[in-house]
Design brief:
Layout (H helix, E strand, L loop, with lengths): L16 H11 L2 H14 L3 E3 L50 H11 L4 H10 L5 H12 L11 H9 L3 H12 L11 H12 L5 H8 L1 H5 L3 H8 L3 H12 L21 E5 L4 E5 L7 E3 L1 H8 L5 H38 L1 H6 L9 H8 L3 H8 L3 E4 L2 E4 L7 E2 L8 E2 H13 L9 H10 L6 H10 L5 H4 L4
Parallel strand pairs: 2-5
Antiparallel strand pairs: 1-4, 2-3, 5-6, 7-8
Amino acid sequence: MTLQPRQTYQQRLMLAPNVTLALEVLRMPTMELRAFLEHQLEDNPFLELEDERDVDTSASPTDPPTTPEPAAGSGLDEDWTSHWAAAGEREEPNRDEDGFAERLTDQRMLTPQSLPEWLRMQLGCQPLPDAERRIGESLIERLDEHGYLESGALEELAAGHGVARERIEAALRLIQRCDPPGVGARDLRECLMLQLEQRGTCETLAYRILRDHFPLFVQRRLEALAKATGTDPAQVAQAFQTLTQLNPKPGRVFSSDLPPSIVPDLVVHHREDHYDVELNDQELPRVSVNRVYYRMLKDARTPTDAKEFLVRKFQNASWLIKAIDERNTTLLSIARCLISLQREFLDQGPQAIKPLTQAQVASLIGRHPSTVSRAIAGKTIDTPCGVFRLEQLFASGVPQTTQTDSISDEQIKSAIRGLIAKEDPAHPLSDAIITERLAQDGVAVARRTIAKYRGALKILPAHLRRHRR
């Protein structure tokens, strides 16, 4: 069998370059589009910022419009600690002292970007022998991202450095006196005790509870703690409140995966009797066609090879400007449709979001559902109720047997949250009871659906919410 060349024909559907560019621009959120435009401004000489355009009163009649047209003929696992999920991430209260913002900025500039760097800096400020300093640095390397010492690290370091375990523990105590409070702990109990020790509150009821009755504290058995400590239940409740305000993960303040600041793509304004929406395009550079290069393209004296380059760049600039206009038009059409259909959400909050699909919105604005899906991906909208992803305004519906209309999953989550907020802490509501309560209100939902939504709301099951006696 020999290899022979053979010519075949086939048909394939391919997107034109301008269509591909339009789809990519439609997908980009504001900040991603900003970076893309900045790159295009450097790469394409035909693009310039509108505020940088020179005022030329002698511009020829051949100057291009704001949106250029191509030139003709150019060829162109669950536990109670989840109550502290946001510990260490609370915002600082507003302060009005003069110069506070400047001092805070300077402090952030001097603060290292990782927990190990910060601890090594503090360790370097202490007068220690070289051997002790090496042990301390080895301990810092064995801390996890939350600031806890890895299990078995003391024994391994003692064997690795050839010293007694007591010397490793002495070095660990130096680390535990560093900032942030609680760092270097081996478990949650030690982490909380270290924080109270740094506050100088070792003689308080809260410290005694951690030291002598930690299992009762974990189980939230307040009355049993009052009996065991010989104190009043009100005092135990106050100590319990103090403990739950401590930071169970001190290393998280140096975490590198903190969410970035959100720049919403759309902003909703409340007018007198209606809502209006506009693009948040203040972060986007406004681009236009460079007049100098455009006149060079139209000049018959321009060399052929240069004109071919200019034709290609002018074509790319034209496609980009039209793609941006199409993106903005599509986003505004979707947003205006959403605020019209979800008016109750703007008035009452997320609990009033109605069932809505992307296909319904696409039909109303005359676009394909895939276009709507691509346009809302990664986009956010600033509303009177807060900043939301556009996807959140599309809610799946749960069919109801007693009603003609379905109910959205957000409405069910809001109902679950409301029932649990009013429950008796000593007798919390189980998923089955919540199902029955919702059925009494005309909302038919399966128990497993309640469990799924409760998990999405980060609410513990009933047996972990119970305040035991």
